[in-house]
Design a protein that fits this description.
With 373 residues, the protein is α/β, with parallel strands linked by helices. It has two domains: 3-118 and 356-371, Enolase-like, domain 1, CATH 3.30.390; 123-344, Alpha-Beta Barrel (TIM Barrel), CATH 3.20.20. It is 31% helix and 23% strand. The chain contains twelve helices and 17 strands. It has helices at residues 62-73, 88-91, 99-117, 121-124, 145-157, 173-182, 201-205, 225-233, 247-255, 272-284, 298-307, 357-363, and strands at residues 3-4, 7-23, 26-40, 43-49, 81-82, 132-134, 136-139, 162-166, 188-191, 215-216, 238-240, 261-264, 289-291, 331-332, 342-344, 354-355, 364-371. The strands form five sheets. The chain has a seven-stranded parallel β-sheet, covered by helices on one side. The protein has a four-stranded antiparallel β-sheet with strand order 4-3-2-17, sandwiched between helices. A two-stranded antiparallel sheet has the order 1-5. Helix 1 (62-73) crosses helix 3 (99-117) and helix 9 (247-255) runs parallel beside helix 10.
């Protein structure tokens, strides 16, 4: 069913985090998020641009994403018919990089198409392998080890099935040792966000004694080869994140044995079309995947829930309750996690949640409507 997109509305919202989130490349206390609304035939679909405020995770950042959307991506969809949501990614493929930016636009069209068809988004993308998705949490670097232990205790009490902690040089082996001593049986992984080099291989080998589920992206954000060398030296599985931007990258990493697990982030790979391709490549190779997070508000969180229903998302992802991050979310009801550490998949058309437009208007700091007129 061809879609004639009449308007694309860009909104920047600002949401303070209930607790700061720190990684190896900085601390975040407030999110500046771009929401994309695609309108056709009186129906709106919504997407979220998941890049950070600064170009530290990758080359993208909020202000740059706004310009790329306005000047290069959105105009390719306006003024003509788009065959379907699957066709969006090829239309913006001329834009080098900026996958989180174009992925937010693509996600909006997938949501729009699902709503026009009266289908839940998860069903429209070919998901539905599970009616509830298993959830883990990502815990940033804390002020102290006791603060970290207290945070983990609270998350385990809330039912989360897996704990991920951020590490960096100086906050790694001994911190993990304390966590393992306090929580010997929890499913535990660490995320380095590219904070190390291959010269740190012997140091990273010390993490093997803690029986971690995985070490996520220990080396450079654009490296696969050194990860292959490192994986051969470690007992612990390496999970790749930042350097897997496409199904082709996944194929190369698997062929080189650079990882045993892949984190799929919807924005990082440019949207649902490529995310499904990465999923399929990994599944064919017997490599499990899970859904990573980028401190999304409810729109991106709902998209991640849909993505996580694909069959090879067999490990608990970073999709967690809205209240872990926001005093009030932009969707209703907020995303909730059951005592069993799962999120129940909703059956409503589109991504399954209503938009709290009144609250959204209160936190919108800029808005621009693009049309074909």
């Amino acid at each position: 069913m061809a879609i004639r997109i009449e308007r694309i509305i860009l909104r920047e919202i600002r949401l303070p985090l209930v607790h700061f989130f720190e990684t190896s490349f900085g601390r975040t206390t407030e999110r500046r998020i771009i929401l994309v609304e695609a309108v056709a035939g009186g129906v709106s679909g919504w997407g979220e641009v998941t890049c950070g405020e600064r170009p530290f995770y990758n080359e993208e950042w909020t202000d740059g994403a706004w310009l790329v959307l306005r000047e290069f991506a959105a105009p390719r969809l306006l003024g003509g018919e788009v065959e379907n949501a699957e066709a969006v990614a090829p239309l913006v493929a001329h834009i080098r990089g900026h996958r989180m930016t174009t992925g937010g636009l693509e996600a909006a069209v997938w949501d729009l198409e699902a709503r026009r068809l009266g289908l839940p988004l998860w069903k429209h993308i070919g998901g539905g392998a599970r009616s509830a998705i298993p959830c883990g949490v990502s815990i940033g670097i804390q002020e102290s080890v006791p603060d970290l232990l207290k945070k983990i205790e609270g998350e385990l009490a809330a039912g989360y099935q897996r704990i991920k902690i951020k590490i960096k040089p100086g906050w790694d082996v001994e911190v993990v040792r304390e966590v393992r001593r306090e929580f010997p049986h929890c499913k535990l992984m660490v995320d380095a966000n590219s904070a190390y080099t291959l010269a740190d291989a012997e140091h990273l080998r010390r993490l093997d004694e803690f029986h971690l589920m995985m070490i996520e992206q220990p080396l450079s954000h654009d490296d696969i080869i050194d990860h292959a060398v490192l994986q051969a030296r470690l007992e612990t599985a390496i999970c790749l994140d930042e350097c897997i931007r496409s199904a082709r990258h996944a194929e190369q990493a698997i062929r080189l044995k650079a990882c045993r697990i892949i984190n799929i982030k919807l924005g990082r790979v440019g949207g649902f079309r490529e995310a499904r391709r990465v999923h399929d490549v990994a599944r064919a190779a017997g490599v499990p995947v899970w859904c990573g997070g980028m401190l999304e508000c409810g729109v991106g969180r709902a998209h991640n829930i849909a993505l996580s229903t694909l069959p090879n998302f067999v490990l608990p992802g970073d999709v967690s309750a809205s209240r872990r991050y926001w005093a009030r979310d932009v969707i209703t009801p907020p995303v909730e996690v059951t005592p069993a550490g799962t999120i129940e998949v909703r059956a409503e058309p589109g991504f399954g949640y209503a938009l709290d437009l009144e609250f959204m208007s209160q936190i919108t700091v800029r808005q621009e409507t693009l049309s074909c007129a």
